[in-house]
Design brief:
Layout (H helix, E strand, L loop, with lengths): L1 E10 L2 E11 L4 E5 L6 H8 L7 E6 L2 E2 L5 H9 L1 E4 L11 H12 L4 H14 L15 H13 L5 E5 L7 H18 L2 E5 L3 H7 L2 E6 L2 E6 L10 H17 L1
Parallel strand pairs: 3-8, 3-9, 6-7, 7-8
Antiparallel strand pairs: 1-2, 1-4, 4-5, 9-10
Length: 248
């Protein structure tokens, strides 16, 4: 479990996050939604430690991150898998080299053990016979799956996704949603997903946090969201669905 307790974050005089408290459960897909500029990306990056919060606590498995020593923080970082928007693969590395990279950096595995782990992770995301391809030689959906394979290669306890369906067609987006859901259950991870894709919300939203003007404005699940009377949430959901229909 990850707990976020009363966290705030400002950049200069602009306060982005305002006293947010949330809980992200293990074995479930925990979604963060909200319009552009709401603070959801800053929230995600604050949880993983890219941004340092001004106030509050972020708690991983009962341990307060800010109270940890350097060694304890390093251990938590190695238990985190992150898939950035766009995948963030190394263009000059092959698929194999991208996925094995964290193992070379952080594991004590032998070459044989690392190869076996890479093959397992690529197979888990339904990718075979692509080890020697470069990112530019495979589709956007395949690139996202390679990024997921790299994120799980160290068998993390915590998985974070920033707009995993960005740039994907609806059919491929469903494949990625299903894959993330399956991995979350199979690996029993705490999975946190920053998304604006309402299909993802409807299909995979075990827990949903709606961020509005830097605050946790509404929480619930994908069934609750259909019956919500929260004005700002309903406006966001309607506007998002409307934009999707226009783009189609």
């Amino acid at each position: 479990m990850i707990e976020v307790r009363n966290i705030s974050k400002s950049f200069g005089e602009e306060q982005i996050l305002k006293n947010i408290s949330l809980t992200f459960e293990r074995g479930k897909t925990n979604l963060i939604i909200g319009q552009s500029g709401s603070g959801k990306t800053v929230l995600l990056k604050s949880i993983v430690g890219i941004h340092e919060i001004d106030e509050g606590e972020i708690i991983f498995g009962g341990q307060v991150y800010s109270s940890m020593d350097r060694k304890e923080k390093q251990k938590i970082r190695q238990e985190i898998g992150m898939v950035f928007q766009g995948g963030a693969l190394f263009d000059s590395y092959t698929v194999y080299e991208n996925v094995i990279f964290p193992l070379r950096m952080f594991s004590g595995m032998s070459k044989k053990e690392m190869n076996k782990r890479v093959d397992f992770c690529l197979d888990r995301v339904n990718l075979q016979n692509v080890n020697d391809f470069y990112p530019s030689e495979i589709s956007g959906g395949m690139q996202k799956r390679v990024a997921i394979a790299r994120a799980i290669v160290l068998n993390p306890k915590y998985l974070f996704f920033d707009e995993p369906n960005s740039g994907l067609d609806p059919k491929t987006a469903i494949v990625i949603d299903n894959l993330i859901k399956e991995i979350t259950v199979d690996f029993n991870t705490v999975t946190v997903i920053n998304t604006h894709d309402m299909n993802s919300v409807a299909e995979t939203g075990d827990n949903i946090a709606f961020i509005y003007n830097g605050q946790a404005w509404w929480t619930g699940n994908n069934k609750d969201i259909l019956e919500s009377e929260n004005k700002e949430l309903n406006e966001f959901v309607f506007a998002t669905k409307l934009m999707r229909s226009i783009k189609k």
